[in-house]
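Its record is quoted verbatim for completeness.
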Amino acid sequence: MTTTATAPAVDKVNSDGSRRPTRRRGSGVGRPGFVWAAPAALFFALFAIVPLLMVAVLSFTSWNGLGSPEFSGLDNWKKLLDDPVMIESLWLTLLLTVLGVVVQTPISILLGVWAAGKQRNRAILSAVYFVPLLLSITAVSVLWRAVLDPNFGVPSQAAWLFGDGNLLGEQSTAVGVLVFVATWQFTPLHTLIYQGAARAVPPVLYQAAQIDGAGTVRQFFHITLPQLRNSIITSMILMVVGGLTTFDTVLILTAGGPGTDTTNSAYYMYQKAFKSFDFGAGSAIALLLVVVATLVSLVMVKLSGYDKMRSTMEGL
């Protein structure tokens, strides 16, 4: 029986004289082709790109859900600019987004760094803390609606703290409730992000800091936080996009009330499209939210330098 010898792979020579290895034919090593990404790309196109294009088209039409949409040009956009409720909803959306970032970010960082440690019972406490993350937004909103009920909930048993107990009856307290409920549910998600990032920090950095006499606080601000920079940016982008598109919590807890005091842009879109049957105006609001969320995310990525993916471990 005769055998044929396989020719060894010969390294190619670069212009500077260095050698680069040549992939052996038939080894199966290489970058996957586009066919591997085709199913995900098709799914994204059908359930994201196509609906978005349809919404963009509807935003320039007048349609009540029956018959065929009629082209109306920029009428929907002009009406939104002159609509005081729409302007108020934009400011409220911005307020909820900023409060969400300001409240959730420090709590998530501290809990994430703590959960990355080796404290006793840390795993058990972390598991209990992550329970809200497993619940749906609807379930969480219904739960807190019952807990904060002015007649049968906690406020009715602590009048000295909550007054008449109707926390959802005034704009200031209703906004506070929305921020609190969002923090209670979504902080575990961002904590998980920071926990993973904190565990990836090289221990040698802390060992060197201890040799130099740096305490826990200095290590946190001079080592941990700089190493979490990319994770902080990612977390904040998720918070901003989530804040701009908050709907379920507002629908169940406040229904936009009292009056229109907690009507954010996403809920106003729902009112326009599915209560007033003005799908053209509702589509215009939806498209506006998509554009704003995309632009804000791009600006955050650009200003933070996250798009360049600079390493946080230089010098190691």
